[in-house]
Design a protein that fits this description.
The complex is a heterodimer of chains A (about 250) and B (about 260). With about 250 residues, chain A is mainly α. Chain A is built from ten helices and two strands. Chain A is flat, with a radius of gyration of 23 Å. In chain B, helix 4 packs parallel to helix 6. Classes of the chains: A mainly alpha (about 250), B alpha/beta (about 260). At the A-B interface, helix 7, helix 8 and helix 9 of A face helix 2, helix 3 and helix 4 of B.
Chain lengths: ~250, ~260
């Protein structure tokens, strides 16, 4: 799908990874994350190998390292908690740079940080090489409940429309001298949110009307069937299988 | 148009009356017929019942008195799918009409819902987009198009179903003059029956030889668009006003 404009997470390219059918990439990413999560935290070298595997995929997909690293920053709020763990956890303590830290906490923090980072990196790679529309087709192909896929696809279609409506309402407020500057103004903002909800709801009704007028009877017709050959599957699944080998080594060594 | 079946008109509405569940009565016995290949404008002031009437044409609203027949097929529960294929409604806001992530999928929605797929579906989509001059935009998401382009795609989504009659709700609203003219050219080039609901009287005069005036839930007048617009008394009674400086008597029509 050579969509003229794509989502900003998508990195344009024609690499073999971009060309893979979306459902194989989704399955491979999910399997990879599951494997990573089930690796024992003590096998530190295994996580290094996983990182190398992802770097190889990024290289294949021609996603620049800078882009990948910058997008990893998204995980910071989620791992902030991990940084606290060595300070608050109980048990055996160890002195690092004059600070008394919990050994268990350090392991816990490492566990969250390593697995989280690898998971986010895998997702970032998926998002950089797969358009939103393709992701939806992939989810549909993987037999996600159709209602969920429909909701997600309407979200993509109407996200911009509703943001635009919100922007117009804000401009209308400000044009009449309103400046949200404190708690006293929350009432006005809450009413705007309510109005936006009602407008969106009414739009939903009109969209439904338009759908029914074109023969919608409860299920979306399948317009694009995505298929994957055996070769494409094995290419996509090379990543989780390599990871699985590392994971098994991690358990046995 | 079709010489073989001259008998059934594209659309026949007889004695249609309807009241909303809250008791507000919108239609009080509407009667008219539109022959195959005709282009007819439905004029009327705000609140005259135009939208209510349109929603009866493909059976979204039912349950009142009277009947609607599309090319000989009565609108009713029994043939709903076929009726909705035959009556193509283009709604006023293209953002309501275009709900799929790309133009191509949106145009494919109607035929695909009717069970069409594969190469036949692709062909249908391509033809429909070609007829409105939007074939180069097939893979774009609708919200990245200009308003005029979205309106044209909305027309294509309906043309893809090869309807018997095309119903347009305020087709010229929010269009700049160039988009307005382009849409008029497209509508003129289509070989399909058109019912155009509008306030835009010059547009009606330009495109539709015949007009119906709907006022207070009844058809108040039915005749040549030029004649109706020149009837000052009629126009005043039904709150229809021409734009400043526009005189329907002085307009010379092209081919």
């Amino acid at each position: 799908m050579g969509a003229g404009h794509a989502h900003k997470l998508y990195v344009h390219g024609h690499s073999p990874v971009h060309a893979l059918p979306p459902h194989t990439k989704l399955a491979a990413t999910l399997a990879f994350v599951v494997v990573v999560v089930s690796t024992p935290r003590e096998a530190m070298w295994a996580f290094a190998l996983y990182a190398v595997l992802l770097a190889a995929v990024a290289h294949q997909a021609r996603v620049p390292a800078g882009v990948l690293l910058r997008r990893l920053l998204i995980e910071i709020p989620f791992v902030a908690f991990a940084v606290l763990m060595p300070f608050v956890a109980e048990g055996e303590r160890v002195d690092v740079l004059g600070l008394s830290l919990s050994v268990d906490g350090l392991w816990g923090a490492w566990n969250v940080l390593a697995k989280g980072t690898l998971g986010v990196a895998a997702s970032v790679l998926l998002a950089s090489t797969t358009g939103l529309r393709e992701l939806l087709l992939g989810l549909q192909r993987l037999k996600l409940p159709p209602l969920l896929v429909q909701i997600a696809s309407f979200m993509i279609r109407y996200g911009d429309v509703i943001t635009d409506e919100m922007r117009r309402m804000r401009i209308a407020r400000e044009s009449r001298g309103f400046e949200a500057s404190g708690v006293r103004h929350w009432g006005v903002l809450a009413k705007s949110a309510g109005a936006l909800f009602i407008r969106s709801y009414e739009r939903g009704e009109r969209v439904h009307l338009a759908m029914v007028s074109r023969g919608y009877a409860g299920s979306m017709p399948v317009i694009d069937e995505v298929t994957a050959s055996r070769a494409q599957w094995s290419y996509a699944l090379a990543l989780p299988f390599a990871a699985l080998a590392v994971c098994l080594l991690g358990w046995t060594l | 148009m079709d010489a073989v079946t001259p008998a059934a008109p594209s659309l026949e509405v007889s004695d249609l009356a309807f009241a909303y569940p809250d008791g507000h009565q919108a239609l009080f016995g509407v009667d008219f017929r539109i022959g195959r290949g005709e282009r007819v404008a439905l004029l009327g002031p705000n609140g005259a019942g135009k939208t209510t009437l349109v929603l009866h044409l493909n059976g979204i609203l039912t349950g009142g008195a009277g009947t609607v027949t599309v090319a000989g097929l009565p609108v009713g529960k029994r043939h709903m799918a076929e009726i909705r294929r035959r009556v193509g409604i283009v709604f006023q806001d293209p953002d309501d009409q275009l709900f799929m992530p790309t133009v191509r999928e949106d145009v494919a929605f109607g035929p695909a819902a009717a069970g069409m797929k594969g190469a036949e579906l692709e062909e249908r989509v391509r033809t429909a987009l070609e007829r409105v001059g939007m074939e180069a935009f097939a893979d774009r998401p609708p919200h990245h198009l200009s308003f005029g382009q979205r309106r044209r795609v909305a027309v294509a989504t309906v043309l893809a179903m090869e309807p018997e009659i095309l119903v347009l709700d305020e087709p010229s609203s929010n269009l700049d003059p160039a988009s307005r003219r382009e849409l008029a050219d497209i509508l003129r080039s289509l070989d399909v029956t058109v019912l155009m609901v509008t306030h835009d009287l010059p547009y009606a005069l330009e495109l539709c030889p015949r007009s119906l005036v709907l006022s207070d839930g009844v058809i108040a007048a039915d005749g040549g668009t030029g004649d109706l617009l020149s009837d000052d008394e009629l126009m005043r009674t039904h709150r229809l006003e021409l734009p400043f400086g526009f005189d329907p008597r002085s307009v010379t029509m092209g081919a």
